[in-house]
Fold these 2 entries.
Entry 1:
Amino acid sequence: MQLIFVRHAEPDYSVDSLTPKGFREAELLARRAAAWKPTSCFCSPAGRAQATAKPSLAAMGAAAETLGWMTEFTIGCHARPDGSGDQSWVPWDLFPDYWTADPRYNEPEGWLDTPYLAAHADVARPRWAEIKAGVDGILAHYGYRREANHYRIAPDAQRDALLVFFCHLGLACAAIGHVVHVAPPELWHAFFMAPSSVTVLNSEERQGDVAGFRIQAFGDTSHLRAADEPPSRMGSFGRSVFPL
């Protein structure tokens, strides 16, 4: 089985759509997606994800199922762990000296017990449970059923299925973290997923009917580089996005 997670193209959050650059990125992504032969596609209901998916779906001759759990991982926490700063959408973008000081941020479930997330447990825990149930429900439909921290492959599983998800940076990292049993904060803080980028997971089935998933590519923007379109820095705090 192969999973492809696509982050939406450069967003215009003010209207929940894309910037002019974002629409260019979506068209370049569609050139790449034209070679994909998806079994099924899924999309966040957010306008920026829908606008990103539209040209790719047309190029693939596919339709996408819109799923509410694929909206961005937003819990209305403050911009800083001490409660200061403006209200933020997201439970990431923490300063390095804060999130690296508590080893629970590196635990696939323990990260929710940190003071920052525990303060918003009434929203964070149900949202995390919804994401896990959502992605596991899709994998189970194709015969890959969660068992402990790996997947059991049913005799009638569609082992050659290609599933494509059009969604968001935070949501994708959370879903991927669950699938590969890595704490989402590690992906949120240590990896960058540029707008319109492609992240690929393959199942590895070396143990009979037991499968684990492995990240083959993360945040790939080769479709942009091929057209001399620079990757967007939206969501990055660095000076530039590779390549210079």
Note: The helical segments are 20-33, 47-60, 96-99, 115-118, 121-141, 169-180, 184-190, 222-225.
Entry 2:
Amino acid sequence: MLEIKNVSKLYGRLEALKSVSLSIPQGEIIGLFGENGAGKTTLMKCILGFLPYHGEITLNGEEITEKNIAALSFATCEHSFIPNLTPKLHAEFYKEHFPKFREKRFKILMEFFELPMNKPVRSFSTGQKNQFEVIMAMCQGADYILMDEPFAGNDIFNREDFYKVLLGILEPNETVLLSTHLIEEVSEFVGRAILIRKGEIVANTSMIEIEEQGENLMSYIKKSYNYKADRVGRAISELEWEEE
């Protein structure tokens, strides 16, 4: 269980996270949704220990340190791979440092996305780099796989294929926490939705509960955010009025 208790994060005077508390059990695909600047990336980086914060984050009741950090992996559009190394050398490096590295899964995913094993990753296209970033996060052997906008630069067909592969290869103890703006695309694949707005958790519910309310994921998010559908029309009307 990944436990987040009263976590706050300040950037100067800006409160990026405001007493966030969450319990994330193993064995789920969870969507983390919010506007730009809502706190999604900050929350993930606090979990991973990349940023200092106030509050408490524990994994199975223990503080996250170098002793248990391998239970967490991270795929980010900022990239964490070593550009001059080939995928083959990345795999060798991971096998040395992560005893649970999933070599068979690595080979299957590399073949599925038709990525070259012996070319430096810096020579990959943007989409290929993002695919490789996700592959390494999924093959590390972590129990919790955090993904922050991992599909940037990939076309819709590659993204859809990846969602299907994700469902097919994850084991019961693996949890994916996926931050993305592609809400409608992932709605069929996530089992739970966590909504964050201005640094606060505004909803945390299962897709079953959303469907029981007669909602789909997009309508549920708009309702939770009190989205005003007429705001575009009002803005255009005001601009037209000024121009007259």
Note: The mean pLDDT is 90.
